[in-house]
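[INFO] parsing input record for NAD-P-binding protein
[DEBUG] input buffer:
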Amino acid sequence: MSTAWLVTGSSRGIGLELVRQIAADASNVVFATCRNPSSATKLKTVSEEAKGKVHIVQLDASDVASIKAAAATVTKTLGSQGLNYVINNAAGQSSTDVPSTLEVDSFLADMKLNVAGPAIVAQNLMPLLERAAAAGGRKPVVCNMSSGMGSIAMDLGARMVSYSITKSSINMLTYKQAKESPNVIWIAQDPGWVKTDMGGPGAQLEVDFSASSILKVLTTVTEKDSGSFRRYNGDVIPY
Ligand SMILES: NC(=O)c1ccc[n+]([C@@H]2O[C@H](COP(=O)([O-])OP(=O)(O)OC[C@H]3O[C@@H](n4cnc5c(N)ncnc54)[C@H](OP(=O)(O)O)[C@@H]3O)[C@@H](O)[C@H]2O)c1
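[DEBUG] output buffer:
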């Protein structure tokens, strides 16, 4: 039986590279979700090259109906199989605000996409994760993509307050999910500062290095790591 993965926000950036690398392993099948499949040209190319191992599914992480429809499609496609890995990668950063310039609408939009979105994705995929857990072997893993910006202990200053709050919040979500659902390993993952549209060209890490590092972490974490916040190299980051 193949190992089943789902990645959100896979039209570009880290999500696209994760799908490319996951699909390169013959034992994997991957549900590559994105909000606009018709314009996801790079993802379509990856899917064509993977010859049936990449299923492109529409999923807007800010839209509960879209998440539910995607979960139904994945459930139907998997048949009796469960999901082994879910990577909540989709996120946005609508502002580079500081506390004195924070605006309600953009803050709430980021909270909806970056925190409520991953929570609702996990809720709707839980039956498939439980099915994978019941099949025995390695526990299923959910990765919530976080950021060093979400760490208070790292003391990164006043900038990007809305985005940073969303990432602190996803760390807390991950901790709560680990406490509520011990059949799954829940990880808050910092991908590093990566050369993508979000990270910009001056970032430290190439996207292929970040993605391969993340996959190494996710495929080696164990039950005792559930609820933790990890750097791309697997080190624990203080909350
Ligand atoms: N790059 C970095 O340095 C860095 C550092 C720390 C953490 N991160 C985190 O790593 C993850 C990936 O970041 P990235 O650098 O690859 O970002 P990116 O290049 O900006 O790509 C963001 C992805 O999220 C998707 N997305 C945006 N809104 C969405 C929605 N409503 N529903 C579904 N998908 C949506 C985008 O799809 P569209 O193409 O449709 O817009 C795109 O595929 C994010 O969680 C980010 O916060 C990145």
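[INFO] The two ends are 37 Å apart (CA to CA).
[INFO] shutting down worker
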